[in-house]
Amino acid sequence: MQTLPTLTTSNTTAEQPTFETTIKRRKTRPVKVGNVTIGGGYPVVVQSMINEDTLDIDGSVAAIRRLHEIGCEIVRVTVPSMAHAKVMAEIKQKLIKTYQDVPIVADVHHNGMKIALEVAKHIEKVRINPGLYVFEKPNSNRSEYTKAEFDDIGEKIRETLEPLVVSLRDQGKAMRIGVNHGSLAERMLFTYGDTPEGMVESALEFIRICESLDFRNLVISMKASRVPVMVAAYRLMAKRLDELGMDYPLHLGVTEAGDGEYGRIKSTAGIATLLADGIGDTIRVSLTESPEKEIPVCYSILQALGLRKTMVEYVACPSCGRTLFNLEEVLHKVREATKHLTGLDIAVMGCIVNGPGEMADADYGYVGKTPGYISLYRGREEIRKVPEAQGVEELINLIKTDGRWVEP
Predict the structure, then answer these.
(1) Which residue has the higher pLDDT, 367 or 211?
(2) Three-state SS for 403?
(3) Which is nearest to 184 in space by CA: 172, 174, 175, 194?
(4) Which end of the chain has the smaller Cβ count within 10 Å, N or C?
(5) CA 88/CA 119 separation, integer angstroms
(6) Separation between Cα atoms, residue 209 and residue 293, nearest integer Å
(7) What SUPFAM superfamilies does the record point to (predicted)?
(8) 400 phi and psi, to 5 degrees?
(9) pLDDT tens for residues 115-129?
(10) Helix %, strand %, coil % of the chain (to 5)
(11) Taking all residues of the chain, what is their mean pLDDT, rounded to a whole number?
(12) Is 267 helix (H, G, I), strand (E, B) or coil?
């Protein structure tokens, strides 16, 4: 008889193989952004970006507050001009006066040294794009970059970046080096092609300049609109950083993911794949929708992977011919009654076959055991059987009995 070979791992005993069921995150240095820490073993940080014009002070303050109140821990704003950079001082002051001090990161593009230097006075983190920070005018007749030409632009980048690095270093603030696949500099495209390698080398050039100036409060991103490119770029970035002894945290995101169900699936495919590899310290889901709709997707990704517990985890079977009640309707009722709770696992199972066994890890179970009745469980233990019409009410009473209920 043909048999499969015995599976072994590095930590396997002779009697029983063991497998990791929790994600082991890549070790990174902690980078402070105001009162939030990215990396260093801290929980994965959730970010988003307001879409208000920051010259609208009241609108921007309100938008930042809306995001922060629903769990966005760092908020990004765009500063396309010196006027936008200067007004950030008023936005910060008004936030502190009317709400609280929210960590803010400012987006700077296109020859933005003066803008970056101004905005760095007022907020906790500056994001720059290596492909745009020193603009290289494309030459349609060019066939290659010589080493001298490549190095000459590299020196211009250093001259332009150094004042910002020194300012952030001396203030104890942070920088995100945010590479985008769609905006690689021309010399990187000629040298490495439109590839993840070109993205990584673009970031490393800026990292080395920062390190030469003794500045290491860095977060790195490798965003792309195509998931396979994004995943490959981040994996290569993590590999190269580890090889070079650089322990910088990574900011994950699929840029321009779109909207609706597909936008959420696309973002999840990229972000969750990397997080499951242990790669990633902060995330943003980029949707073509109101920013508030990005935050629930972030937390759902983190909760599904066991990286953060911010809401109730619902375990429910898909329903079949054995189901003894309208599973979709009952799950909706249970969710509406308990969705404000945190840290609980609640199972809703349609029959005894999928009941106690499949929901073994749940804190509470709601199981159709006999027609017209519901069996309520605490863990694996059946506590009571109640009429179906009273099922949700009695589930709440059981949670209250255990002292784990809070009012909505």
Answers:
(1) 211
(2) coil
(3) 194
(4) N
(5) 7
(6) 37
(7) Nitrite and sulphite reductase 4Fe-4S domain-like
(8) -65, -40
(9) 999 999 999 999 999
(10) 40, 20, 40
(11) 89
(12) helix
Q: Please tell me whether 320 is known to bind a ligand.
A: yes
Whether 137 and 130 have beta carbons less than 8 Å apart is answered as: no
Question: End-to-end CA distance of the chain, in Å?
Answer: 60
With both helix axes pointing from N to C terminus, report the angle between 260-276 and 294-304 in degrees, rounded to the nearest 10. 40
Any idea what DSSP says for residue 41?
T
The answer, yes or no, to whether residue 321 has pLDDT greater than 60, is: no
Looking at residue 272, its pLDDT comes to 98
Q: How many CB atoms are located within 10 Å of the residue 119 CB?
A: 28
> Quick check: pTM over 0.90?
no
pLDDT, tens digit, for every residue of 52-97?
999 999 999 999 999 999 999 999 999 999 999 999 999 999 999 9
The per-residue DSSP string of 281-316 comes to: SEE----SS-GGGHHHHHHHHHHHTTS---SPEEEE
294 annotated as a binding-site residue: no
Rounded (10°) CA dihedral 98, 101, 106, 112: 90
One-letter identity of residue 72: C
CA distance 44 to 106: 20
CA atoms of 408 and 405, how far apart (whole Å): 9
**Strand-by-strand arrangement of the 381-387 sheet:** 313-316, 345-349, 364-370, 373-378, 381-387
Residue pointed to by tokens 């809070």: 406
CB-CB contact of 33 with 256 (8 Å): no
Q: Give the pLDDT confidence score for residue 234 in this predicted structure.
A: 98
Distance CA 280, CA 276 (A): 9
72 annotated to a ligand binding site: no
Provide φ and ψ at 214, rounded to 5°.
60, 40
Q: Provide mean pLDDT across the span 212-240.
A: 97
Angle at Cα 73 formed by Cα 311 and Cα 106, nearest 5°? Answer: 150
Say if CB 49 and CB 74 are below 8 A apart: no
Element (H, E) at 210: helix 196-212
Q: What is the pLDDT of residue 38?
A: 98
Structure confidence at residue 15 (pLDDT): 62
